[in-house]
From TrEMBL:
Organism of provenance: Bifidobacterium italicum
Stored InterPro entries: MFS (IPR011701), MFS_trans_sf (IPR036259)
Protein's name according to its UniProt entry: Na+/sugar symporter
Top-rank taxon: Bacteria
GO molecular function terms noted in the UniProt entry: transmembrane transporter activity
A Pfam family reported for this protein in Swiss-Prot or TrEMBL: MFS_1
Sequence ranges of Basic and acidic residues compositional bias: 30-42
Gene3D superfamilies referenced in this protein's UniProt entry, alphabetically: MFS general substrate transporter like domains
């Protein structure tokens, strides 16, 4: 006779209960009989435990200037076509240890929808920023200064406007990066600075159309650059900190496409708004506002930093992007090459409006519509040749396995591109300059970036070296603006700017030759 009582299962059928295992009722001391402390302890006991508990210090988030991926994002802002194939040395990468590459720096794993939002958000933000800056820099601001100051006065005014803007942007970035590192808000470290920079940039972008003197344009432009500096440094830091290692290349590719599309549309937008530059400037301000909204709302919300530890800010935090301790001779040479190459690009590109319009002389300027159309076509040709240069540079680097040789080829082509308008200051000569120049400039920048990444002497301090490398490009643009102002103030023909551009590229080539000679001796 079965002494087990039937048991009802899930579907209601009766079946006998299984025979218990031997010693299955054994109670493990300290495990099975462990009390629920929330119920067993009184409020006084809980308060006593809290007083005796050891409080761990919260983690201090790394500074933006100490993160290689943040500097890599900033390093790719100048060339829209693509970046160097050389991987940025990041000893904190999740691919180098047992951490999950699918999580961000805070340990958060974004969902597929959030990763897609990052791609779309960063790409659209880059598109609208590139759109607004291309239209303002290439066509609208030079056209306004041409109207206010005339051919020579407008070109000189453009030089000091650009120079003051670059200087303000450099100083603002030096302060904004460490200040954002020490920001602790429920919205995160970077989002408040991005929002504040957007507000400042939009206000002064709308103010550009109300300026009626070159001095007013210069002041408003400088304040606009301060807002843009806050936006850009926060954007670069967000890409480096919030995008997991696994998706960083994909997000970077989307951002690159956004920058390139923004440049193309921005240049042609300037052509369409040739007859109404004030309206065009206001629409560029709307583009900056759209970039800020997309960056704040489409990109997933940044984690709160209220409970993050903040160490006291030191003077050394302001010097991270300006110097490194004990740099090698090769590294100094690379930074000098970057400086002179950036100065050459500044001279060749920033004044293209005045070079195109007054190629027949100061008293025989081209029609406004013809000038705009030619500037836009030159810009499209330069972008197309830069795309071609992307593939050719990779092919040459794979064939020769010598980055310095590829760099010297690019420098030689850049010098040729600058010399062509000196020999033939005509429509055909300027188109040849745009084509060869776009090809050469991208090759030089790509090779320089690969060479800089490969030449970092201390891998554990790669971020500091790349920060100085980025700063050298900014200083180079400042040098180009200063030389451009001198050229237009004292030169008889606007084509003289190409001579100085060729000199700057030749100086970059001389630095490259010195680096090759030094490395061969070692």
């Amino acid at each position: 006779m079965n002494d087990q009582s039937p048991q009802q299962d899930a579907d209601g059928a009766g079946r006998p209960a299984p025979r218990p295992f031997p010693n299955s009722d054994y109670v493990r001391p300290g495990i099975d009989d462990r009390p629920d402390l929330d119920k067993a302890l009184t409020d006084e006991d809980k308060a006593a435990v809290a007083r005796l508990a050891v409080r761990q210090k919260p983690k201090t988030p790394p500074a933006a200037a100490d993160q290689p991926e943040v500097q890599a994002a900033a390093m790719g802002v100048n060339v829209p076509v693509g970046g160097a194939d050389e991987p940025v040395p990041d000893l904190e990468s999740a691919f180098l240890d047992m951490r999950d590459p699918m999580v961000d720096a805070n340990g958060y794993r974004p969902t597929k929808a959030e990763v897609l939002r990052m791609k779309i958000g960063f790409a659209c933000t880059a598109f609208f920023l590139a759109f607004a800056l291309a239209a303002l820099n290439i066509t609208l601001v030079p056209q306004e200064l041409d109207v206010l100051g005339g051919p020579v006065g407008g070109a000189v005014a453009l030089s000091w406007v650009l120079g003051v803007g670059i200087l303000c942007s450099l100083v603002a970035t030096i302060f904004f990066l460490p200040l954002s590192d020490h920001t602790r808000t429920p919205l995160g470290r970077r989002a408040p600075w991005f929002a504040g920079g957007t507000l400042v940039a939009v206000i002064f972008a709308f103010s550009l159309s109300a300026c009626h003197t070159p001095v007013a344009v210069g002041i408003v432009w400088a304040l606009l650059q301060i807002g843009l500096a806050a936006m850009l440094c926060s954007l670069h830091a967000s890409i480096g900190e919030r995008v997991p290692d696994k998706f960083r290349d994909a997000v970077g590719m989307w951002r690159t496409v956004g920058v390139l599309a923004g440049l193309v549309f921005g240049i042609w937008f300037g052509v369409l708004m040739a007859s109404e530059p004030g309206v065009g400037m206001d629409l560029c301000a709307v583009g900056v506002l759209a970039a800020g909204i997309l960056g704040l709302l489409v990109v997933p919300r940044e984690s709160s930093t209220v409970y993050s530890r903040a160490k006291p800010m030191e003077t050394a935090d302001l010097l991270v992007t300006l110097r490194v301790d004990h740099p090698t001779a090769i590294w100094r040479t690379i930074c000098l090459m970057r400086l002179f190459a950036s100065a050459g690009v500044m001279l060749a590109v920033a004044y293209v409006w005045f070079v195109v319009r007054y190629r027949r002389g100061v008293d025989a300027g081209l029609d406004l519509r013809a000038t705009m159309t030619m500037v836009a076509l030159m810009g499209l040709l330069a972008c197309a040749m830069a795309l071609l240069s992307e593939g050719v540079t990779d092919l040459l680097r794979a064939s020769f396995d010598n980055g310095r040789l590829v760099l010297m080829i690019g420098v030689a082509l850049a010098i040729v591109a600058a010399v062509v308008p000196l020999v033939s200051y005509t429509t055909a000569g300027l188109y040849v300059f745009a084509g060869i120049g776009g090809f050469a400039v991208h090759m030089v920048d790509d090779a320089l970036r690969s060479l800089a990444v490969a030449s970092v002497p201390q891998l554990d301090r790669a971020a500091g070296y790349l920060a100085v490398f980025n700063t050298s490009a900014t200083v180079g643009r400042l040098l180009g603006a200063a030389v451009g102002g001198f050229v237009f103030a004292y030169a008889t023909a606007f084509s003289s700017v190409f001579l100085w551009a060729a000199i700057m590229f030749a100086c970059a080539g001389a630095c490259g030759a010195a680096a090759i000679a030094y490395s061969s001796k070692r």
